[in-house]
Write a structure and sequence with these properties.
Blueprint: E1 10-13, E2 16-19, E3 23-24, H1 40-53, E4 57-59, H2 68-77, E5 85-90, H3 106-120, E6 125-131, H4 144-155, E7 159-165, H5 169-178, E8 183-185, H6 196-204, E9 208-209, H7 224-232, H8 237-248, H9 261-270, H10 277-287
Parallel strand pairs: 3-4, 4-5, 5-6, 6-7, 7-8, 8-9
Antiparallel strand pairs: 1-2
Bound molecules: NADP nicotinamide-adenine-dinucleotide phosphate.
Length: 288
Amino acid sequence: MSITSLPGGTWKLGDSTVTRFGYGAMQLAGPWVMGPPKDHEGALGVLREAIELGVTHIDTSGAYGPHVTNELIREALHPYPGSLFIATKVGANRDAQGGWPTARRPEDLRKQVHENLQVLGVETLDLVNMRMGNAEGPEPGSLAEAFGTLVELQQEGLIRHLGVSNVTAEQVAEARAIAPIVGVQNLYNLAYRHDDELIDRLAADNIAYVPFFPLGGFSPLQSEALSAVAARLQSTPISVALAWLLQRSPNILLIAGTSNVAHLRDNAVGAGLALSGDDIAELDRIGR
Ligand SMILES: NC(=O)c1ccc[n+]([C@@H]2O[C@H](COP(=O)([O-])OP(=O)(O)OC[C@H]3O[C@@H](n4cnc5c(N)ncnc54)[C@H](OP(=O)(O)O)[C@@H]3O)[C@@H](O)[C@H]2O)c1
């Protein structure tokens, strides 16, 4: 499998072309995204397999571990292939209990950007998402000060592209009025479709939408309709959920997570499943 055969083809993310089938590295850290992986070599193997398959978009954050997924990415893949686009995010730290306290003062964000640069071993970050809200989701309120700090860091040459994450549609509009963004990363999947309108508006403006928890994250997607469609197509609910996202809109980029090489390979094939209009109509009823 290669860039030409990964399902979904490619998307122009700022000045780079990335495979729509990407990889989310969060699950490579230890339990609850804290500490090292149980299987260090296995984690390196998943990252190397993603590159072998032709994946050119990896999503990470300094908060994963903290720093663990960035360290693994560097160990597995540095010096990076020229085609690889690594997206990271800032806006939270970790505490000793594994919580995600927000850290969005200008000095916090500067520190996080410099830590990402140092741990990943790069001079410029391809994409930094300004993550807002909290674990329950987006919170209303201005992102201008936080996003403005990332704009300054971009002007200093430390960031190529900007994005926003865990945000409301109003916050997306606010960010876009301050500086161009290449993507929005929010919670979205077959069963959680709050962003349907936003996705369509972003698609019209060639801005990527990157769903996090595409498979339900820590609560795997479960639905009778999903299982029924999967059984009819002699496939799996996971493949159907990924294929549905790729068919939902051309600006959707997949960053499904896995810590398992076999699952990664299954997903790279399964996401290419062809869904008929009837399949999609049945699946659409899950989230509406
Ligand atoms: N911006 C944000 O606030 C935010 C928040 C959360 C996540 N994210 C990003 O979104 C990415 C994706 O989220 P996620 O990884 O948490 O959730 P996810 O992609 O919805 O689901 C990952 C889970 O699915 C399982 N899985 C994947 N493929 C499978 C297969 N073929 N068969 C069986 N199980 C399979 C994985 O287990 P195995 O390891 O056993 O395969 C893992 O437990 C993360 O990596 C992260 O980069 C961003």
